[in-house]
Amino acid sequence: QVQLVESGGGLVQAGGSLRLSCAASGFTFSRNAMGWFRQGPGKEREFVAGISWGGGSTYYADSVKGRFTISRDNAKNTVYLQMMSLKPEDTAVYYCARSDYGTLRTMNRDFGSWGQGTQVTVSS
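and the corresponding structure tokens:
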């Protein structure tokens, strides 16, 4: 079955960096677009970044553009989220998700499999 396991979250000071990883298994990783979402305290889950099946196309939420970078290694079945210049408002549980499509997607409804999430806390 599909498994997505996130890692790399933690506590960091504002201005710091973290790199999240998502190890995928149970499907042919190179066929699916992938995405990162987050859910902050008292907020709905929101799209953060997406990447197409081959990595040639990426897209970011305006709130993270220029600070976050999504990438993937199809040989390692892993997708990454490099986060820099972190802000307290980036505090959230971050989820890795597998799109039901190969092309880039940004909507919740286009992602059929989700990881358990990893907590990112940014202190001021």
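(Above: one complete record from the training split.) Residues 38 and 94 are 4 Å apart (CA to CA).
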